[in-house]
Amino acid sequence: STDPIDCPLCPGGKTVMRHSREGKQFYSCTRYPNCTFNSTYRPLAERCPDCSSPYLVEREIRGVKWGRCPGKGCKFEK
Length: 78
Fold this sequence. Notes:
Layout: E1 15-19, E2 25-29, E3 38-39, E4 43-44, E5 56-61, E6 64-68
Antiparallel strand pairs: 1-2, 2-3, 4-5, 5-6
């Protein structure tokens, strides 16, 4: 389990893992429905240096994890 980070869209909210009706995992704000933030991937409390997106998302393939910008058109990875 990881600690929730501050919601990148609203003040006072935190991101938490939830499960859809189909059982799929996603992340959303604790202030839903007042805040509509949601992400398929775990958000990281790090700003993108290329496009200034307020957060990165954690990606994982075969046990290798890295951060990637969720911004449309931005290709930043670390």
